[in-house]
Design brief:
Layout (H helix, E strand, L loop, with lengths): L3 H48 L4 H36 L1 H16 L5 H9 L4 H9 L3 H27 L1 H9 L4 H43 L4 H14 L4 H16 L1 H26 L8 H15 L1 H19 L42
Helix pairs in contact: 1-2, 1-6, 1-8, 1-13, 2-6, 2-9, 3-4, 8-9, 8-11, 8-13, 9-10, 10-11, 12-13
Length: 372
Amino acid sequence: MIPAIVVFWVGYLLTFTTRHVFHRLSSLLVLLLVSVFLSLAIEPGVNRLAARGWRRGRATIMILLGVLTAFLIFAGAVGTLVGTQIADLLSESDAYITDTVNFLNDNFSTNIDPQDVIDEFNDPDGRVQEFIQSQSDEAVRLSLAVVAVIFQMLSVLLFTYYLVADGPRMRRGLCSRLNPARQAQVLKAWELAITKTGGYLYSRALLALLSAFFHWIVFQSIGTPAPIALALWVGLVSQFLPVVGTYLAGILPVLLTLLDSPVNAAIVIGFIVVYQQIENYFFAPRITARTMELHPAVAFGAALGGAALLGFVGALLALPAAAMVQALASEWGNRYDVMDSHLTAVPGPRSSRSSGDSNAPPDSAAATPDPT
């Protein structure tokens, strides 16, 4: 009979060791998690190239280089935009301060002297200049952080390459340990995860390109600085951050246009709101019809949970993770016909109803059993 005190200390040591190992390997686990989802996203493209005679290694490298190039272009465009605007703001600080103070005095009945604000801003012993000088000490720390991010990106790309290029061999090794029935289940779940997760990410990328294109037209027409960079920013952030992404993405272009013209800022706000409705009713249903559309509540809840676990990376990974879980759950269990009720009626597209038929039946997809 083992004494209780021995069981307690053995359990305590095992728990302490597990927590210590997990804490030390947490960054590696995050990199592996990012690599897994990236591999699921690009494997459909690799499979298509492999079916055309490409070697999987070469196809994987080509797609990864395309993804990396697109990311670097986006990061460089947004970084250049932010740096240019900060430099312009500092060089033309007196004019911006004067315009801002005059706007406040004219619209909010304040009585602020612009010269007093300018003197306070330019005072070498003032709080503003002390804050600016204090940030210069962060240059070394920022450089080290950039080097760490580059190393992590290279690690993710390397893990992803091996997961995709050597994917068939890895799956053969896994299936060799399972009986035929279990192999069929594992391979079916794996293929479903690849198809739905990759399709979901491709659909979001296509919606991001559409959003960037139409926002670029508006930004270019009203003379917004760096319209291409701002359009890419709005497109990507609005599609890959659920619910609040559209409004967070719109903050940067609104602020930049507000510095030049409040009227242009109002135009940007109006277009963002209008385009969101057009996307919800026309673009998104057609693009996601063959892939998967997450319910907004599910997407928002998944993003909050992912952010709580892994921060910003978790919020981004939560969407493809939720899409994969939803796809796997949709294949589980039986499906039955849904009885007609006002609680289950799903309105169909407006174009499919005649203007005078107010009692048209609900969307047939709501009452048709799953063919699987």
